[in-house]
Amino acid sequence: xxxxxxxxxxxxxxxGSVASAAxxxxxxxxxxDAISSETINANWKANAPKVLWKCQVGKGCGSWSIVxxxxxxxxxxxxxxxxxxxxxxxxxxxxxxQYPEKLVANLYEGGPNTTPTVDGNRVYTLSKxxxxxxxxxxxxxxxxxxxxxxxxxxxxxxxxxxxxxVVDGDLVYVLPCSKDGAFYALEKKTGKIAWNTTNIxxxxxxxxxxxxxxxxxxxxxxxxxxVVAHDLTAKGKILFEHxxxxxxxxxxxxxxxxxxxxxxxxxxxxxxxxxxxxGATPKILHRDQDIRMIFQNSVRSGNTITGVxxxxxxxxxxxxxxxxxxxxxxxxKMPGTRASAGLIGxxxxxxxxxxxxxxxxxxxxxxxxxGRLKILSGKCWSPFAVSNGRLIARNNxxxxxxxxxxx
Length: 407
Hints:
By secondary structure, the chain is mainly β.
């Protein structure tokens, strides 16, 4: 069993042996929570950001990663998944890695739904069918390859594998959801299995969230029919689980943990719930079936949850909620039915599914908008990424844009 103390984790994050504080190395940023300490220009009414570059990256819903001035994304083009690495300042292509992969346009444009995960000089990518690559960040050469379905017996949901790989110390976590177990820890340098859980779960669509629960390093996973916490110090032993059956197993938004409470949400009439997980059995503290998320993300600041709630039957509303009581501090209409969110410095930034980028200041008393820009056409279902004054976003058709949001 590997030892991973709270202190060593603190050193890893703060000193940045993998990434600096300004980097955005994985899905939803440095800590996978869509929060960055970076200061940006968010007063677009007075000083609109300049468009630095645009490009085509192939169809898909995976977001960008940005590390050391390199921007990475995956898209599908003419029957191939294409991993692209570009200069974040200019958009110039540095390298590409591609391999055969069907588009599978099932009720949307199709293509990969995961985000590249950058760790040191390695990049980890996962295709919709389960092809897991470890690539060299410098030139895109494959270091190793695994197949979650063919080798590990993985069973993806109807929209394929969508949980991005998560690196933790010497391991990379993936969710095959096979008959032998749902959660796998692979050696990040070789791809060999270090350990796997034996629990059987239906595949969901959310990326695991790393946190600390009861003093233990843990992964919070929103599977297709349950929300589960795995003890990462005990080979994935289940700390708690709670059943949550959403139609088509679409549990896809990021769960949040804070001070003995777990927030999670889905669509299709399920809404959100907050669990008290301090006892032997999780208990629902509060729930509202009309406050929904399909796959958009929330952000947590202290004891509050902020996000754009809505699904195909309920229009989007930006809300700020008290995690303990469920009190809605305020709610405000937003474009479309969903949007991704990020807390960048003091600014809340939103990307609506209709391609509108919105910035503002938030508090318990309200949201003060400081700028709104139409940056993309079509549907925008993937979150944006921000690093060193560069904000990069893409739409489902593969059109991408980079803005200069430096202060």
